[in-house]
């Protein structure tokens, strides 16, 4: 799933940084993001969710504005 997420983000012009977590930290990260499991996308320090959340934002045309607001895209 993370490969699909990276491809979608690259398609809209963002270049995400992937952070590999130790097993003990995975549970903490998933809990911080609402328990949705991994991988989790954070934009500007805010958990957006996993693949479903990312695709949902993209389909509703909210992804690019959120990335721009976070400074992840150039205008």
Your description of this structure?
The protein is mainly alpha-helical. Helix content is 48%, strand content 9%. It is built from four helices and two strands; from the N terminus they run ααββαα. The protein has helices at residues 2-11, 23-32, 51-59, 63-69; strands at 41-43, 46-49. A two-stranded antiparallel sheet has the order 1-2. Strand 1 and strand 2 (46-49) form a beta hairpin. Keywords: Cytoplasm, Redox-active center. It is found in: Cytoplasm. Belongs to the glutaredoxin family. CC-type subfamily. One of its GO terms (cellular component) is cytoplasm. This is GLutaRedoXin.
Task: Detail the topology: elements first, then pairings.
Elements: H1 2-11, H2 23-32, E1 41-43, E2 46-49, H3 51-59, H4 63-69
Antiparallel strand pairs: 1-2
Record keyword descriptors for this entry.
globular, mainly alpha, single chain, two-stranded antiparallel sheet, 75 residues
Residue ranges: pLDDT <50 for 5 or more in a row?
A: none
What percent strand? 5-15%
N-C termini distance: 28 Å
Give the rounded overall mean pLDDT.
Answer: 88
How many E-type strands? 2
**Which range best describes the helical content: under 10%, 10-25%, 25-40%, 40-55%, 55-70% or over 70%?**
40-55%
Main beta-sheet annotation: 2 strands, antiparallel
* Structural class designation: mainly alpha
Order of helices and strands: HHEEHH
Strand order of the largest sheet: 1-2
DSSP summary: helix tally: 4
Shape, please? Answer: globular
State Rg. 12 Å
């Amino acid at each position: 799933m993370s490969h699909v997420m990276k491809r979608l983000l690259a398609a809209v012009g963002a270049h995400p940084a992937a952070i590999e977590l130790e097993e003990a930290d995975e549970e903490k990260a998933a809990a911080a993001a609402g328990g949705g499991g991994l991988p989790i996308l954070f934009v500007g320090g805010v958990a957006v969710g996993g693949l479903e959340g990312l695709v949902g934002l993209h389909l509703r045309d909210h992804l690019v504005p959120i990335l721009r607001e976070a400074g992840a895209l150039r205008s």
